[in-house]
Amino acid sequence: MGEVLDGAAVRRWCRLAAEALGRTRGEIDALNVFPVPDGDTGTNLHLTVIAAADALDELPDGAGLTETWRALAQGALLGARGNSGVILSQVFRGLADVLGPLEAPPDGAAFAGALGHASGLARGAVEHPVEGTILSVVAEAAASCTGAGLPDACRGAAGGARRALRRTTGQLDVLARSGVVDAGAAGLCVVLDALAAVITEEYPERYEVPARVGGTPAVVPERPEPQGPGYEVMYLLDAPDDAVHALRERLDGLGDSLVVVGGDGLWNVHVHVDDAGAAIEAGMAAGRPHRVRISYLHAAPGEPHAPHTGRAVIAVTAADGLAALFEECGARVVRREPGTVPPLAVLSEAILAAGDEVTVLPNEPEVLALAEAAAERARDGGAHIAVVPTKASVQGMAALAVHDPLRRFGEDVIEMTRAAGATRFGHLEVAEQEAVTSVGLCQPGDVLGLIEGDVATIGADIAEVARRVLDRMLSGGGELVTLIAGTYAPPGLAEALEEHLRQEHPDVEVGVYEGGQERYPLLIGVE
After folding, report:
1. Do 432 and 459 contact (CB within 8 A), yes or no?
2. pLDDT, tens digit, 9 for 90 and up, residues 240-258
3. pLDDT at residue number 381
4. Which terminus of the chain has a smaller tally of CB atoms within 10 A, N or C?
């Protein structure tokens, strides 16, 4: 069963690596002092490899080498966590680039070439490579692949990685002061040990993670001064390859620990910044960010403190009319500029000032991760903060409609979440450029009808497109339709749609509002 790196062996390797990282992640987390001492490198690597293994498990029986390697790389890319997880996903991609197209499983020389290519890709993905990290170790592993046979090459790679791992302590001052090896590099060694075990069928009793060999942990004062940027921002990005260079330059100017991996229109972006909103906006300028995650890197127990002033709801919006609607319903409004996200500091301060039981309505997918990060900071001070994952203003209005400050906080959040989740949302917008959509090609000036973010219909007339969107959204039933007209909605649009609904859907209740949003002529909600 050993000695061949075919599709079955790739699956066994990935699953074994996930299991090994699961057993060692606590030890790896304890080594984590670079680039920030957040103690999660082992966990991030474990989650990254689990994502790759899950992608392999979804392959149909009989999948070939190309499909297997592609699934490994794609699964890791989509599931990568943290700085080291993103780099490891690039190592997998490098192996897939070389080994996937082969007509037969690789020998030792082919594997050595693939690992060398993976090392180059990983180093190229990091904006400012540092020696004494996972990058040094993967390079030494590639250089240590010797012998024509695959077992010798894998043993050589694992052994070379272990030797390079021990040297990391002397290559970075922060590692030397703490007496540890690099955490990400230690995790890579576990992954390569698992590969060698699968190929040689020589399974270790335990996977070694070097313990602290000297030095002392940094003494943490009662009120530590934050060092470095405050937030880790990660997101997947749908963007053309030629947009990534400008994105790198923009993000490099905002912070550090920048890693961008991927290709063929899909990227995984990782950066440490003080302005998380600016990092997301940079992604929005390059393409479509999604699966946004923001982590606060300098959380301190007991800070910040909520003022304990009671229950509140915060709604985020960019439009004057929508702001007025939310305020009329009892929410506090945080404004953002059209096409942007609000500054994280502004949202955090608004939550802290609102009270000790606060519900946040982001009302845009891009704002959701910012709201979660701001809420996490407030929770450190003992406040009860809930983020209802509203992706559209009509969902936020539906949540506010059932808000009851006399209910228990948890029950109120549940009811608001149910109401938001039961509200389908759509909108109209006018295409600014030629593009390929899920329903065909659109030209500048075409009216696009979107349902929950996906283009459902294209036309030339706003009213006609709106009618088609409404009919499709109501095809599965609905009791209440909310229409929110934008600044540039044609006169009489709402009245014409009300008449259409009376004719075609007489049992539906209709609510019409002026939202004042600039980009979308019409927002639609169906409950």
Report:
1. no
2. 989 999 999 999 999 888 9
3. 61
4. N
The span from the CA of 24 to the CA of 190, in Å, is 8
Report the pLDDT value the prediction gives residue 215, as an integer from 0 to 100. 47
Q: Which amino acid is at 452?
A: E
Percent of the chain with pLDDT over 90: 51
Q: What CATH number does the domain located at 311-421 have?
A: 3.40.50.10170
Model pLDDT for residues 177-212, shown as the tens digit of each residue: 888 999 999 999 999 999 999 999 989 888 988 887
Exposed/middle/buried for 433, CB within 10 Å: 0-12, 13-18, 19+?
A: exposed
Asked whether the beta carbons of 447 and 465 are under 8 A apart, the reply is yes
Residue 302 pLDDT: 41
Find, among 325, 375, 482, the residue nearest to 419 by Cα.
482
Average pLDDT score over residue span 264-275: 90
Query: Which 8-state DSSP code applies to residue 242?
Result: G
Contact between residue 261 and residue 123 where contact means Cβ atoms under 8 Å apart: no
Q: Give CA separation, 467 vs 407, 434, 504, in Å.
A: 38, 23, 10
> Does 1.10.3720.10 match the CATH number of domain 7-200?
no
pLDDT at position 227 is: 63
DSSP code at position 23: H
Work out the number of other CB atoms within 10 angstroms of the CB of residue 477: 10
Architecture, CATH, for domain 231-296: 2-Layer Sandwich (3.30)
Residues contacting 492, CB < 8 A, separation 6+: none
Whole-angstrom Cα Rg for the chain = 26
